[in-house]
Structures are given as C-alpha cells and as structure tokens.
Amino acid sequence: MSERLAVNLPGLTMKNPIMPASGCFGFGREFSELYDLSLLGAIAIKGTTGEQRFGNNTPRVAESPSGMLNSIGLQNPGAKSVRDNELPFLEQFDVPILANVSGSSPEEYVNVVKTLNDASNVGAFEVNISCPNVKTGGIQFGTDPEQAAMLTSLIKEATNKPVYVKLSPNVTDITAIAKAVERAGADGLSLINTLIGMRFDWRTKKPILANEKGGLSGPAIKPVALRMVYDVRQVTDLPIIGMGGIESAKDVIEFLIAGADAVAVGTANFTNPFACLEIIDELPTWLDQLNASQVSELQRRGVVL
Amino acid sequence: MKSVPLKVVRNQEIAEETYEMTLSGELVQEMNRPGTFLHIKIPGSHHVLRRPISIASVNQELGTCTLVYKCTGEGTRALTNVRPNDCLQVLGPLGGQGFPTEEPSTDQEVTLIGGGVGVPPIYFAARRLSERNIPFRVILGFQNEAAVFYEEAFKQLQATDVTIMTDDGSYGEKGTVIDAFLKHDQPSSYIYTCGPRGMLKAVKAAAHPDTRVYVSLEEHMGCGIGACFACVCKTEDETSYVKICTDGPVFQSNEVLL
Ligand SMILES: Cc1cc2nc3c(=O)[nH]c(=O)nc-3n(C[C@H](O)[C@H](O)[C@H](O)COP(=O)(O)OP(=O)(O)OC[C@H]3O[C@@H](n4cnc5c(N)ncnc54)[C@H](O)[C@@H]3O)c2cc1C
Ligand SMILES: Cc1cc2nc3c(=O)[nH]c(=O)nc-3n(C[C@H](O)[C@H](O)[C@H](O)COP(=O)(O)O)c2cc1C
Ligand code: FES
User: Residues A176, A181, A187, A193: what is their CA dihedral angle, to the nearest 10 degrees?
Assistant: First the structure.
C-alpha cells in the first residue's frame, strides 16, 4: 500500500504525494504533537530569511468565503536558528524537508541556501519568489522572467541540492516565468503561492489586515491554481508541486490530472489540523476508483488531455 | 490538546446578541485552566478559519463545558443556528498560559475586571478562586443594560463585591470599569482582566505597582497552535514577539506591549 502512494521527485523521496505547504505548518513542532510527521510525504518548512524577521503588524489574517487572507510578513527565526534549532528537531522523523527560502536581495537568498545546505534532512530548496507580504524582495523576482531566471541560476550555483522555484499567480503569464526558471536550471516548480487580495471592515471603513493587503489561499483559489498547473504543464516537463485550496484526496487527484507530480496542503491545516493525514488515508480508495495501481500512473496526464 | 467532536447540549441567547453554549464530551476532562480556549470549526464548508472562544466554565460531573460568545460576524452568526444534539468540531483546550488561580493565598485578594465578551474567562477564574476560598471582587463593563450577563452567577460565587458599569448608565453605574476600579482605594494582590485592548491598557496604567496584573489577549488566529505566526504580540521591550495562542492568551502585563 505504501508503495502505491510513493512518489519520487528530485531530492524528495516521498512515501506519498502529500506535504504541508510552507507557512502553514511552522517547522513541524506543533503538528508533531498531533501526529507522527513520518507519515507525511515531505514537509515544506516556513519561509526562511537571512536574519530573524518579526513580520507585519496584526491582524495578519482575515477570512473570506472558502478562503483566507494572510499577511504574516515572513516572520521566522532566521537561517542560522532554523539550521541549529528547527532542522535538528525534524531529524527524528523519517521525512524529507523542502526548505522554503526567501530574501530581499539575491545575496540574502544565496546566504540562506548556503546556511541550510549542509542539513542532511533538507532534500531540496523551494525558492519563494512570490511572497506578496513583504515590501522588498520576493515578489519582484516572481513577476519578471529575467529576474526570476537570474535568481534561479545564482541559487543553483550555491547548492548541489535540487531547487524548486515557487511561482506567483500574480502575473499575466505564469508560463513565461516557468520557462525562464527552467532555462536557468530549476529542478522543479511549486505553484501557486497566494493571490493578492483585500478585505474591509464595514464598521471602521478600514482594511481588516494591518498590512492592508494579503495573500488569498484556500478552496477559493483552487480553480485558479488548477488552471495554472495545467498551463505550466503544457510548457514544461519539470516536476510540479501543485497547491492552492487542497482539502481532500479528491482535490489531490484533480491536481495530478492537471499536471502536478505531488501536492502541498496549506490552509486546510487550519480548518482541520489532521487534513494531511486524512488525505493520505483516503488516497488509496481514490486510486481504486480510477483503476490506478499507483499514484505515478496519474501523474502528467495534463500533457495528454 | 485534541481535535474531536463535542455534542451541543444547549445554545441560548442570554443577553443581546450574546449566547451561552454548553458542550459535552470526553475532551471536557482536559479543560481545567481558566483563560484557555477552544478553536471551534464553524459548521458548513464556507469558513476555513476556526473561531477561538474562551472556556467560561466546566462541570466535570456532567462532563460539560460552557462558552459565552457574542455574535459579531458571520462565523458566530452561524454558531447561533447550532441546535442541541448537533456536533461541533473542537480543537483544544488551547493556550499555554491561563490565569494563575493557584497562586493567590487566602489572605490575598484578587480583583477581576471583565469587559463585554472578556467576561467569560474571568468567570471561569472566579469559579476557581471561589473553590479555593480566595477573596475576590468583580468589576464588569458592558455597553448597556441589554448586554449585561452573568451578574447573578458572580454573586453566587460569593464575590466580595460585584460592580456593573455600563457605557450609557442604563444599568449599574454609568462609566467605565476603570472609574469603578479607581473608587476602590485598597490595592489587591492580583488583577485578572480580559476585554478590549484599550481597557487592558487602562487597567495596567491604573493598577498599583505592587499588584500583579494578568491580562488575557485576543488576536485573529490561523492555526491556534503556534504554527502560523498569525497571532503575535510584541513584548514590552519590543525586542521580540510572543504568540498569543501558545504563549498566552494570558500574560503578566509587563510581558507584553499593550
Ligand atoms: C483567546 C481568545 C478567546 C476569545 N474568547 C471569546 C469568548 O469567550 N467570547 C466571545 O464572544 N469572543 C471571544 N473571542 C473573540 C472571538 O474569537 C471573535 O469574536 C470571533 O472569532 C469573531 O468571529 P465572527 O465570525 O463573529 O467574525 P468574522 O468577522 O466573521 O470573523 C472573521 C475572522 O476574524 C477573526 N476575528 C474577528 N474578530 C476577532 C477577535 N476579536 N478576536 C479574534 N479573532 C477575531 C475570526 O476568528 C475570523 O477568523 C476570543 C478571542 C480569542 C483570541
Ligand atoms: C498563513 C500562511 C503563511 C504562508 N507562508 C508562506 C511562506 O512563508 N512561504 C511560501 O512560499 N508560501 C507561504 N504561504 C503560501 C502557501 O505555502 C501556499 O502556497 C498557499 O497558501 C496556497 O495553498 P493553500 O490554498 O492550500 O493554502 C503561506 C500561506 C499561508 C496561508
Ligand atoms: S494562531 Fe497560528 S501561531 Fe497563533
């Protein structure tokens, strides 16, 4: 049965195609009190920057129908502390780590990658060129194909581990960015990050988020995410980690059909802290229904639709 | 901490737009610290975020806990439609630090100050203090007469004094909880307080320097368990942050920047 769900991606030998998405699972400590993290396919840890960051003012989250906005602002303890305190904690689990990397400058990204590079449980890097919640950095690398490519090649030079580039949906043509980072040497793609949105409090007439704008996630963005995975799959053979609104095993199947090789589950962890486990448990039944003996049989269908 | 269904026993309006809900289930056995809270999934598929609600009291013999919530938005509105025998998905009890009701000794006095829906965790603390025979006084603030709840309940716990303040003077005395607090010149050893941030700030400023002030903070939450960094609050020296969901929600007033 475990063989049925197994997925092999560059740097990530996964027991199943499910990983919690970056930022929705911290560094695993809290969820490890709820279940055994070794049951997961992989773990994408919270976006890590060169130095400790305190993030934005509160409120940092707001709700919208079937979705939420967040403007955490990349609060994290900084690369050295992640290397010395968080990654060693995760060593006790038999699960590969996808280290999510952020920065305000190319140098900062490279510095984070170098700092985390020697951690043995880091299987690959996920370069966040799409964080909508910090003023400098992140997003500008995600909206300009040339900058995205430049950053990708710099990071490729800094590490021997596979590099996944996490794409922003806040662009006119996501395939242009995908192609650019592929040419620059990316080993895989993650998509999508959150869509920039806003909510207002009708009583105060002010934005609900202290940061005014935030990133929309959850089931509300699922069709957008599926469309983008599908579009990107048409232009590249790179492995794709698909995400955006996944709540159930059925959603996972949809992402695989659209062209993803594995998936990440974000917001659903807040709605139901056992979401990842429940999805993993339900997947075999879905494979049965589709007459698939293995998850890998469902991968890459997107190209032949 | 667990994520389990709890059965609704009662869900009734007890003051204007304010509901008291009683839940039953095994999880209640784990609920024993005033100030801790439950992260409640709103029924239906619309709401991706749970709602944090304080535990207002528990009855271990009956295996029930009681919450009091104000209908302020869509999620709490949906909660008002829940009926007895329905089940709610509950994650909890959450919170790493509650009101330290074990600390005071019987020769000390505690002043409890609650504003609006900040009253429920204060009530749980009052029950604990009463069980331990610690003398306590209560000051509650509400918008108006229609919003007042639990006055009788506090009196039954043998509070030394229960003062009700309303903004418009339609019940009790007109004014704020601070007005009432300043009238009493005997400083108590402890203050436990919960309510709007402005009120907590004013309580902190008005308290005697020797009084240990404990405040319960609110913030919009994502995970409720410390993983998402949604619910942070700056420390008083502004060099660091605490997470309200796991480091609190109750803090000593000099730990956090109010
Ligand atoms: C630790 C803690 C204990 C609480 N205890 C109680 C209690 O005992 N009784 C009670 O009536 N209220 C309590 N609150 C406040 C309560 O959580 C909010 O009133 C409620 O979440 C609002 O949801 P809504 O559906 O009415 O509003 P909506 O506007 O639909 O909510 C949208 C989003 O914003 C969040 N939100 C909005 N206002 C608040 C707020 N003041 N605090 C936290 N999140 C908010 C919601 O949780 C939700 O994620 C507590 C809050 C915290 C943090
Ligand atoms: C609270 C929160 C924090 C996030 N933090 C990060 C982050 O640090 N780095 C990152 O690449 N993506 C971050 N994301 C984006 C998610 O990883 C994911 O791409 C997005 O939420 C879509 O998936 P979902 O709909 O399943 O949540 C965050 C999302 C949320 C909701
Ligand atoms: S609500 Fe997620 S860290 Fe507190």
Answer: -70
Structure tokens at A286: 């879905």
Model confidence, pTM: 0.96
What ipTM was assigned to the predicted interfaces of this complex? Answer: 0.94
Write out the residues of chain B at the interface with chain A, using a CB-CB cutoff of 8 A: 1, 3, 41, 45-50, 74-75, 89, 91, 219-233, 241, 246
Answer yes or no: are the C-beta atoms of B84 and B59 closer than 8 Å: no
Cβ neighbours of residue B170 closer than 8 Å, sequence gap 6 or more: B144, B145, B146
Position A304 in a domain:
no
Which residue bears the tokens 């194909």? A145
CATH fit for domain B110-252, picks 3.40.50.720, 3.40.50.80, 3.40.50.2000, 3.90.1150.100: 3.40.50.80
Which superfamily is assigned to B2-94 in CATH?
Answer: Translation factors (2.40.30.10)
Could you tell me which chain A residue has the CA closest to the CA of B221? Answer: A61
CA atoms within 13 A on the CB side of B132: 20
The model's pLDDT over A267-280, given as tens digits with 9 standing for 90+, comes to 999 999 999 999 99
Q: Which residues of A touch B91 (CB under 8 A)?
A: 273
Q: What is the CATH number of the domain that holds A255?
A: 3.20.20.70
At B144-158, the pLDDT tens digits run 999 999 999 999 998
Nearest chain A residue (CA) to B239: A54
Q: Which segments of A217-298 does DSSP mark as H helices, in order? A: 222-235, 249-258, 268-271, 275-289
In a domain, A65, yes or no: yes
CB contact under 8 A, A271 and B50: yes
